[in-house]
Amino acid sequence: MITVTNLTKRYGPTLAVDNISFEVKKGEILGFLGPNGAGKSTTMRILTCYMPPDEGKATVDGLDTIEDSLKVREKIGYLPENTPLYYDMWVIDYLKFVAEIRKIPPAKIKARIREIAHLCGLDKELSKSIGQLSKGYRQRVGLAQTLIHNPDVLILDEPTTGLDPNQIIEIRSLIKEIGREKTVILCSHILPEVQATCNRIIIIKDGKIVGSGTPEELAAQAQGGEEIVYITINGPQDKIQEQLNALEGVQSCCLLGSENGSYRFEVKSKQGVDVREALFRLVVANNWSLTELMRTHITLEDVFKQLTTEEN
Amino acid sequence: MRNIFAIFKKEFRSYFNSPIAYIFITAFLVFSGWLFFRGFFLIGEATMRPFFSILPWEFLFFVPAVTMRMWAEEKKLGTIELLMTFPLNDYEIVIGKFLAAFLFLTITVLLTFPFPLTLFYLNKPDIGPIIGGYLGALLMGAAYLSIGLFISSLTENQIVAFIVSIFTCFALFIIGEQIVLTALPSWLAPIFSFLGLGYHFESIGRGVIDSRDLIYYISVIIFFLFLNIRSVESRKWR
Ligand SMILES: Nc1ncnc2c1ncn2[C@@H]1O[C@H](COP(=O)(O)OP(=O)(O)OP(=O)(O)O)[C@@H](O)[C@H]1O
Ligand SMILES: [Mg+2]
User: Fold this and answer.
1) Nearest chain A Cα distance for residue B72, angstroms
2) Residue B69 pLDDT class (50, 70, 90 cuts)
3) Residues of chain A under the 50 pLDDT cut
4) Into how many domains does chain A fold?
5) Ligand nearest to the CA of A42
6) For residue range B130-141, what is the model confidence (pLDDT) as tens digits?
7) For B87, which of A74, A265, A283, B83 could close a Cys bridge (C-beta 3.0–4.6 Å)?
């Protein structure tokens, strides 16, 4: 549905997007993840025909963003960063305006607005001025605007910034629901958001793609193989440490702290080995007491941190 | 056409969504009414001449105020990114905005109708200069509008747009005025006088409508609308 090939964009001396290529298939919800200034918004601006790339090319449904700009724009619903809106307009007038521009037949505009308002939870806000709405409702107006012409492609640039946790969850599930029949690109620097809504993730940093795949694939990609187990044992310190190190499958172990005769260790296991059971048996065999045993998975957060803070 | 109309409606309505429009219309009417009736009662002149002769100067402040926010505000709010990613041609947006400003100006100017009515009630004034004066006022106002609209597209600060528009209109107006003309070499004077925004206004205001005057204003309008389209497009350059 969307193909991006060797896209490059500079703002004067700043290289905002550096030769990136990716593809989004029909029906996919793609998370476009990256720290501030990574070039997410710039990429979206190019895809939505707001500005042309310096090099490379982007197509939507086979149409070039420069040559068939108007047709591409017809297919896209775009929510720019920070949800720009005309604060002095009424919600209903604004949606009417967008509906007219989106070439919805005049006779159908009213019904369509009611439908969309209902979907976005705006039924009661239609006859308010946009400036009077709370931030969350403004966000909904922004979303309603992107959906009014039932576009094939949705491009949402940080659609949940500034919302309270409840609204974030609501907006996310709305996006997920809408995304079932559409191709969606969701830009964000919030991990759980992307994790909760997207089928595939592209991680971008300094204008370059540093990782891509499903959340699981990414985790696997970043994982060195070992797992980390936190264990707290009440017993003699020296002996515990010695025995832990001697245990089969343990790669390394280090003391994190102690409290009232309990010692907390971080145990790194060898690749693909689950040492929890062995650890438990060890404690039982020595008649120590176990107060904590926890294994951590490498989360997407770690992947993100790892991919976006690495010096290269 | 439908696109232009949609933009036009949105822009025109936005004037009345805030109190600014009402304040400006009132200010314009009070100010020109005061000038008109002062001339009328104090000097006893039963003509619209003082009103029309001061109009270019009033427009200098009024028209930039009408156009200052049209692009600057879009840039400041970021709505320009929405507008430019709607399936619209740049020229449709520019024309829609211009027409909305023009209708607003026309309404404001036509709201001065009590002035000529007063004259007709008390006297038998010459109708030609009145019609010509209004026509000239609208054409000159439209030229100012296209300049102000273009300048608004160059900044995201309304106040900057306002002040720069005043100076630009002032410069284009003053080059055709006597003060400047006398300082110029004699071969340049007629050219500058022709280019000045005020010269044609006076000429139409005499009640004789010459095609050269119409063509002049229409060219100025088209020229600045064209510059406006280019400046909106400029984000695509580099
Ligand atoms: N209009 C502009 N003029 C100059 N530089 C810009 C402009 N817009 C963005 N940049 C620069 O381009 C780079 C990428 O910016 P972009 O807005 O695409 O980042 P982003 O990934 O959207 O970040 P964020 O998460 O903060 O929104 C940044 O270094 C930024 O400073
Ligand atoms: Mg951004």
Assistant:
1) 13
2) very high
3) 312
4) 2
5) 1
6) 888 999 999 999
7) A74
Q: Within this chain, do residues A202 and A245 fall inside the same structural domain, yes or no?
A: no
Q: Do A63 and A140 have their domain in common?
A: yes
Complex-level ipTM: 0.89
A-chain residues near B10 (CB < 8 A): 86, 89, 93, 97
- Cα separation, B128 vs B90, whole angstroms: 39
**B75: closest CA of chain A, how far (Å):** 10
Give a yes or no: residue A308 inside a domain: no
A303 belongs to a structural domain: no
Q: Which burial class, exposed, middle or buried, applies to A38 when counting CB atoms under 10 A from its CB (0-12, 13-18, 19+)?
A: buried
Q: What is the pLDDT of residues A137-194, one digit of tens each?
A: 999 999 999 999 999 999 999 988 877 888 888 888 888 888 888 999 999 888 878 8
| Protein residues whose CB sits closer than 6 Å to any atom of ligand 1 | A 11, 14, 16, 34, 36-42, 81, 189
Asked whether the beta carbons of residue B9 and residue A80 sit closer than 8 angstroms, the reply is: no
For residue A16, report the distance from its CA to the centre of ligand 1, in Å: 6
Angle at alpha carbon of residue A53, lines to A50 and A57, rounded to 5°: 110
Which residues 126-155 of A are in CB contact (within 8 Å) with B? 129, 145
Quick check: B51 and B136 in contact, CB under 8 A?
A: no
φ/ψ (deg, to 5) at B183: -85, -5
Domain check: are A108 and A149 in the same one? yes
Domain span at A72: 2-213
Pair A200, A60 in one domain: yes
- Report how far residue A285's alpha carbon sits from residue B63's, in angstroms, rounded to the nearest whole number: 91
